[in-house]
């Protein structure tokens, strides 16, 4: 809430003319980082309230840092968009307050709100552009842990499977019962636990090359 208050005060002071920085940082309107930070704050608050029952205190530093990450990725996204505008020969120097400026703010807010997806997209673009040759070894997925480490047998608990080389996962199962993959990145997979019999089960992650990684999990 402190971030929301600070961002709101800055926005009010800026748009009422109380503070008068340069209207643009190069070709980028100065409110762009604010809109990106606001999007990041909102997604952090969403995550906190959606997972209040299984909140992990170790993530507090991530949520404190997230507005700055949102501001940074918003600027990067607008620069990428502007590169596309330049590529078709359009003008990058509209008057402040034009429709193009407003579009920049929308892009900044959306990317700030979806910064995790944006970072993943950029990582995939980098992999395509800089991928090794066809003979390079393919990284095999590993599982290092699951947050939380156990769940009620009734099912419905949001789980984060952590590890390495998980971005190519095509299936996740609990003792053979496959579950839907809700989000995936190189170091984590998000799923919802199924209903099960109390006791120990094995979580199996299957890669697109059919390699597997396994990890013990407890239903209570």
Write the layout of secondary structure elements.
Blueprint: H1 2-15, E1 24-25, E2 28-29, H2 31-50, H3 60-87, H4 99-113, H5 115-130, E3 142-147, E4 150-151, E5 158-164, E6 169-174, E7 177-179, E8 181-184, E9 188-192, E10 199-207, E11 212-219
Parallel strand pairs: 4-11
Antiparallel strand pairs: 1-2, 3-5, 5-9, 6-7, 6-10, 8-9, 10-11
Helix pairs in contact: 1-2, 2-3, 2-4, 3-4, 4-5
Kindly provide the radius of gyration, computed on alpha-carbon positions and rounded to a whole number of angstroms: 21 Å
SSE order: HEEHHHHEEEEEEEEE
Sheet bearing the most strands, described?
5 strands, mixed
How many strands in all?
11
Query: Roughly what is the average pLDDT, rounded to an integer?
Result: 79
Assembly form of the protein: single chain
Order the strands across the largest sheet as they lie in space. Answer: 4-11-10-6-7
What is the number of helical segments per DSSP (H or I, 4+ residues)? 5
Shape: flat
Low-confidence spans: pLDDT under 50, at least 5 residues?
none
N-to-C terminal Cα separation, in Å? Answer: 35 Å
Overall helicity? 40-55%
Structural class: alpha+beta
- Any idea how many domains? 2
- Estimate the strand proportion: 15-25%
Features:
flat; single chain; Immunoglobulin-like; alpha+beta; 25% strand; 11 strands; 42% helix
What would you say about this model in short?
By secondary structure, the protein is of the alpha+beta class. It has helices at residues 2-15, 31-50, 60-87, 99-113, 115-130; strands at residues 24-25, 28-29, 142-147, 150-151, 158-164, 169-174, 177-179, 181-184, 188-192, 199-207, 212-219. β6 (169-174) and β7 (177-179) form a beta hairpin.
């Amino acid at each position: 809430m402190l971030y929301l208050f600070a961002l709101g005060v800055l926005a009010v002071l800026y748009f009422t003319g109380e503070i008068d920085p340069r209207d643009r940082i190069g070709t980028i309107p100065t409110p762009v980082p604010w809109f990106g930070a606001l999007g990041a704050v909102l997604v952090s608050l969403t995550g906190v309230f959606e997972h209040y029952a299984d909140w992990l205190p170790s993530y507090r530093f991530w949520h404190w840092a997230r507005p700055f990450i949102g501001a940074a990725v918003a600027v990067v996204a607008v620069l990428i968009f502007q590169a596309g505008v330049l590529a078709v020969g359009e003008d990058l120097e509209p008057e402040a307050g034009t429709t193009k400026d407003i579009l920049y703010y929308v892009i900044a807010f959306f990317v700030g709100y979806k910064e995790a997806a944006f970072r993943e997209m950029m990582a995939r673009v980098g992999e395509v552009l800089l991928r090794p040759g066809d003979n390079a070894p393919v990284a095999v997925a590993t599982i290092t842990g699951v947050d939380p480490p156990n769940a009620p047998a009734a099912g419905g608990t949001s789980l984060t499977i952590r590890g390495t080389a998980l971005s190519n996962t095509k299936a996740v199962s609990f003792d053979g019962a496959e579950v839907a993959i809700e989000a995936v990145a190189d170091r984590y997979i998000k799923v919802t636990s199924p209903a099960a019999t109390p006791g120990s089960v094995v979580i199996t992650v299957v890669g697109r090359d059919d390699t597997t990684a396994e990890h013990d999990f407890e239903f209570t």
